[in-house]
Specification:
This protein is mostly helical. 55% of the residues lie in helices and 0% in strands. The protein has a domain at 224-252. It has helices at residues 26-37, 47-84, 93-115, 120-137, 140-145, 188-202, 225-252. The longest helix is centred in the N-terminal third of the chain and has 38 residues, at 47-84. Residues 90-104, 201-213 have a biased composition (Basic and acidic residues).
């Protein structure tokens, strides 16, 4: 009887045999496996390193996609520009040239807006405007933005003498403004002084009024001769004062 296949052993000296060599002892096989697994080149890669490599590959793919999109966008823009400067069907030369002029003018305006630098005054104005909006939204913020008293302190040099408090030259915001074209009367100061005198005379007790005073509502035809003489005298005085004031203003010019 033949031997069982598991007990069959091949000679190790057979140079043409390519199958399993079962005649080798188990200890030698284990030693060979350990030697093969102990190689540094064949060690397993750690999981963290694998994750890093995968992320790097993903980022490269995203960059490539982004570049492709940019290239496509640039191509579309170029096509649009080419279409703008091409004569359309049924468009006359006059309309074509006018359209090109309009497009060129709008492009020049846009480029000027981009290159235009903002002035410092405009920047400060926008900054204050933003701060006001923030204060409206959050009133507590206004307390933090208040400057200290030291910022409002005046610097007084040694030996400076002050005889009176400073005069306010600027008018308040809501004060009524006089128009520049409006001219004031030459005798306004004299009229005002006269009104002050009448106010002072009104403080006197009753019965002490001047006898020559004429009521304003009285007409000339109802006046007596004395009242007419007083009125004429007053009128002549005002005319002379007006002439003197007029000469003075002309002399100054």
């Amino acid at each position: 009887m033949g031997r069982v296949s598991k007990h069959r052993k091949t000679k190790s000296c057979d140079p043409f045999y390519k199958g399993k060599k079962t005649d080798l002892p188990t200890k030698i096989k284990k030693i060979k496996k350990c030697a093969e697994g102990s190689g540094l080149e064949e060690q397993k890669m750690p999981r963290t390193m694998k994750d890093i490599l995968e992320r790097a590959k993903q980022m490269k793919g995203k960059k490539k996609k982004k570049l492709k999109r940019l290239d496509e966008g640039n191509k579309k823009v170029k096509k649009k520009k080419q279409a703008l400067f091409q004569q359309q069907k049924g468009e006359s030369k006059k309309k074509y040239f006018n359209r090109i002029d309009r497009e060129a003018a709008s492009a020049v305006v846009e480029s000027m807006k981009k290159n235009k630098k903002m002035s410092e005054r405009r920047k400060s104005h926008l900054k204050k405007r933003k701060e006001k909006e923030k204060v409206k939204k959050n009133p507590e913020r206004a307390l933090s933005t208040i400057k200290e008293f030291s910022d409002f302190k005046d610097e007084v040099k040694f030996g400076d003498v002050v005889l009176q408090p400073p005069m306010l030259t600027a008018k308040p915001r809501k004060a009524p403004l006089e128009s520049k074209a409006k001219k004031s009367l030459l005798l306004s100061s004299k009229f005002l002084s006269k009104e002050n005198q009448t106010l002072k005379s009104s403080d006197k007790p009753e019965g002490s009024d001047d006898k020559n005073s004429i009521p304003k509502s009285k007409k000339r035809k109802h006046m007596t001769e004395i009242e007419k003489a007083v009125l004429d005298k007053e009128r002549m005085r005002v005319i002379e004062a007006y002439k003197a004031a007029k000469k003075k203003t002309l002399g100054e010019k």
